[in-house]
Design brief:
Helix content: 25-40%
Order of helices and strands: EEEH
Shape: globular
Largest sheet: 3 strands, antiparallel
Length: 74
């Protein structure tokens, strides 16, 4: 089994955490804690990819990247 490494964007909201995968449109998760949302998005990625395969659709390769830019306080 090949290993793929997808970038996940994790965001903290007022009452929960959210996550989405830019390379897999529609692949999202919401959890009460950061740990919860990371577990849920891992499961969501697996289900999303399985669904694409079952539907005979191509599975997008990971292509997103992240870079942090430091700036002075706004």
């Amino acid at each position: 089994m090949a290993i793929a490494r997808y970038m996940v964007v994790v965001e903290r909201g007022d009452t929960s955490w959210g996550a989405h995968v830019p390379d897999l449109p529609g692949c999202v998760a919401i959890g009460e804690t950061r740990d919860d949302v990371l577990q849920l998005i891992r499961e969501a990625i697996e289900l999303h990819i399985d669904g694409l395969k079952q539907d005979g659709l191509p599975v997008p390769s990971p292509s997103s990247d992240v870079e942090f830019i430091e700036i002075g306080a706004a």
